[in-house]
Design a protein that fits this description.
There is one protein chain. The protein is α/β, with parallel strands linked by helices. It has two domains: about 5-70 and about 155-325, TIM Barrel (Alpha-Beta Barrel); about 80-145, Beta Barrel (M1 Pyruvate Kinase, Domain 3). The chain has helices at about 15-25, 40-55, 160-165, 185-195, 210-215, 215-220, 230-235, 240-255, 280-290, 300, 305-325, and strands spanning about 5, 30, 60-65, 80, 85-90, 110, 115-125, 130-135, 135-140, 145, 175, 200-205, 225-230, 260-265, 295. The strands form three sheets. An eight-stranded parallel beta barrel has the order 1-2-3-11-12-13-14-15, surrounded by four helices. Strands 5-8-7-6-10 form a five-stranded antiparallel sheet, with no helix packed on it. Strand 1, helix 1 and strand 2 form a beta-alpha-beta unit. Helix 1 crosses helix 2 and helix 1 packs parallel to helix 11 (about 305-325).
Length: about 325
């Protein structure tokens, strides 16, 4: 049976909502540690375990690490980026210092899973000027990507190491390593987990860029599960190439007997709507037919208006797909 995950957040952080999610068929949750550490999420984690006890289930708790992921820094308030406007990267929009040398004229900068697009127009001594080509509201700690730029960051941050040290104490069952670039990244995390007494904690390799796709064969033996993370993977090239990448990764996992997860925007419209689109339920159904071992909701349960309804649609669609496979 497939594992079905939601993501912890303000929309589902209370015990009663989590009880409803488990009763709908959710088997576990993801906690995004790009915004908070395990101690800072202690209350939500306790609500999770309390809800699981009430439902008589043992929940899977996956922590999504910071890793070598680029993110916008803290903003004093949400920033409205108007198309055609000029903004200063490094000042108005804080970015990690490591991106500085890559902020050259013509470089694209994608923010918040590619929802926002900037293009660098001028390099400055500290940061750069960029033109907003696809605007919207930018909030703190949203993802950033510079397509084509080979920015080398450590596999783990100091915060990641501390979270791994505490993982067992909080009931963590799996660690999701973002932007995996090669087997060495996974071995680094595995060693830290084992040293912290987490030998039984599974390691999930998130494939989020072309380097991860090209190194997939060497990643398969080192990962407990491969994650087809379509948000940033979709930023790694033209969006119309993403479906082929997903199929390619799924096929490689099937051939190697390695489980894989499909995630990102599976029911994105349900962040605002009580009913999904036909395309979304077809996407879920096809992910199951492709052999996915697990599927996950992110913003739908974390910040959406209809977290329980979204989980119900996900579970019903997964079960229908399993029934279809069983009848073949």
């Amino acid at each position: 049976m497939l594992q079905i995950y939601g993501t912890l957040g303000p929309a589902c952080g209370e015990t009663e909502t989590l009880v409803r999610l488990f009763r709908a068929g959710m088997t576990g949750v993801r906690l995004n540690l790009s915004h908070v550490g395990l101690p800072g999420a202690a209350e939500e984690i306790e609500h999770l375990h309390a809800a699981a006890r009430r439902c008589g289930v043992t929940p899977q708790l996956l922590i999504d690490m910071q890793g070598p992921e680029l993110r916008v820094g803290a903003l004093p308030e949400p920033l409205m980026l108007e198309e055609g406007a000029s903004v200063r990267l490094g000042e108005e929009i804080p970015l990690p210092a490591a991106v500085g040398p890559y902020l050259v004229p013509g470089q694209e900068v994608l923010l918040d899973d590619g929802k926002l697009l900037l293009r660098v127009t001028e390099s400055l001594e500290r940061g750069a000027l960029a033109r907003v080509e696809r605007g919207g509201v930018l909030r703190s700690r949203k993802s950033a990507a510079l397509p084509g730029a080979d920015i080398r960051l450590p596999a783990m941050t100091d915060s990641d190491r501390e979270n791994l040290r505490l993982a067992r104490d909080y009931g963590v069952t799996g660690v999701m390593q973002p932007f995996v670039r090669g087997r060495e990244d996974l071995e680094t995390v595995r060693e830290a987990l084992d040293a912290a007494g987490g030998r039984d904690i599974r390691l999930f390799a998130k494939i989020e860029n072309r380097e991860g796709v090209e190194k997939l064969e060497e990643l398969l033996p080192a990962a407990g599960e491969i994650v087809i993370a379509r948000g940033d993977l979709g930023n790694s090239g033209p969006l119309w190439e993403l479906p082929a990448l997903q199929k390619r990764i799924a096929a490689a996992c099937r051939a190697a007997g390695r489980p894989f997860m499909v995630v990102t925007q599976m029911l994105a419209s349900m962040e605002r709507s009580p009913v999904p689109t036909r395309a979304e339920v077809s996407d879920i159904f096809n992910a199951v037919l492709d052999g996915a071992a697990s599927v996950m909701l992110t913003g739908e349960t974390a910040v959406g208006r209809y977290p329980v309804e979204a989980m119900e649609y996900l579970v019903h669609t997964v079960r229908e797909a399993e029934k279809f496979i069983g009848a073949l």
